[in-house]
Amino acid sequence: MRMKRVPLSGLSAPARYSRRALRQPILSPTCSAKQSRRNAGSLSQRPDAKHVSFPGAVKSAFSNSMRFEQPSTYPGLPTYRVVDQHGAVVDPTFEPDLSDEQVVKLYRDMLTVSIMDVIMFDAQRQGRLSFYMVSAGEEAVSVATASALAKEDVIFCQYREQGVFQQRGFTLSDFMSQLFANRHDPGRGRNMPVHYGSRELNIHTISSPLATQLPQASGAAYALKMQRMLDQSIPPRVVAAYFGEGAASEGDFHAALNMAATRACPVIFICRNNGYAISTPTLEQYRGDGIASRGLGYGIETIRVDGNDFWAVREVMKKARELALRDGGKPVLIEAMTYRVSHHSTSDDSFAYRARVEVEDWKRRDNPIIRLRKWMESKGIWDEAKEKDARESIRRDILKAFSEAEREKKPAIRGMFEDVYEELTPDLLKQMKALRKQLEEYPDEYDVGEFEGGMETLDK
């Protein structure tokens, strides 16, 4: 029995790939294998040299003074900012690259995520939804980074990137169908809520385990690089991988960065450092200088950015994509500092481990939506009346999609047996028959009417 083959989003690898081809060293167009061997041989230690000439430490000066390096002697990496919390531009070189209409559209994307989060959080509390995760305070990171990518770029999200989906064209109906696991859900109701995915938008389906998407992203970026090496007609593409600072404590994070660095993969790692990994503050997670310092340790071009500053995040992402495609490909790490205003999820009460006043202070003092709004108002493209109209219209649209999705039937019961094998195996057919018998024997215990096609789908 053959397994069903499902192609990865945006990764239709050419048939010309072979194990031998994948083992070949990645050389730039101007670097031959002979040159590569000669360059490697040039790292031999020369007599009376003043520097270590050794692979992995080629610029280390010899010293006759023994000193253990201390992190406290180095300044923290700077945090890039374009617009301050008052909406004033602080980078004199900054010039907006978007029209007024484009800025308004992206602002509305941020508003949509913010309003949807409140509605769906309340829906979960009412028992109409099993689970939800909000992204309050982090809207700028998702929307701004996504706006700087090409539609062909491949994305791996974690679980707080509603803004990425919204910016790339995921509809309210798409969101609601997945959340309610109805018959229009592309995942056929098999995933937890907020585990979105879209083949059309080149966004891989979100998975629950932390950091598993990171080595997958490095591998996908390597595949894109190999594709382009074999076929120059394919447009250059990057992979964007999102994760929180808590996920950076997983081994997969380190494996992903090391692979991306050594294989020069065109991948952009976007870390949302929001202060807390579930109930663990960052100060209890690590002692180093955030996540950005780790990128430097792996030899990756790295930047730290104010995650509440929409314009700074967008500018950084634009440059990161340019760097990731340079010289055939290279990884880039972005650490976006953005406070998590919300609870970790509907299963969490964050006030059990942080003060309510701390959260309220961040809401009032530095909010990414309010900051972009202040900038827009200073440019004369937004005002209180437009804000009121936008919020009301967005709320109506969300509630309409909510109501329609909630009334839709669930996917066919038969679907739980499909999409693993090309054809149902004898064991699966036996299980399906047993399920049918169970449902018939206890009709009052199971409401099969809410599933598309009812029990009849088990007869096919």
TrEMBL record:
Claim: Transcription is one of the keywords in the record: no
Catalytic reactions on record: N(6)-[(R)-lipoyl]-L-lysyl-[protein] + 3-methyl-2-oxobutanoate + H(+) = N(6)-[(R)-S(8)-2-methylpropanoyldihydrolipoyl]-L-lysyl-[protein] + CO2
Coiled-coil region: none
Principal subcellular localisation of the protein: mitochondrion
Biased composition (Polar residues): 27-45
Cofactor: thiamine diphosphate
GO MF, one annotated term: branched-chain 2-oxo acid dehydrogenase activity
A GO cellular component entry from the record: mitochondrial matrix
Compartment list: Mitochondrion matrix
Membrane-spanning parts: none
Enzyme type, top EC level: oxidoreductase
Ranges where the record places region Disordered: 24-50
EC number(s) on file: 1.2.4.4
Domain Dehydrogenase E1 component span(s) in chain numbering: 108-413
Keyword Metal-binding: yes
Gene3D superfamilies (alphabetical): 3.40.50.970
Family to which the UniProt record says this protein belongs: Belongs to the BCKDHA family.
Protein name: 2-oxoisovalerate dehydrogenase subunit alpha
Biological source species: Echria macrotheca
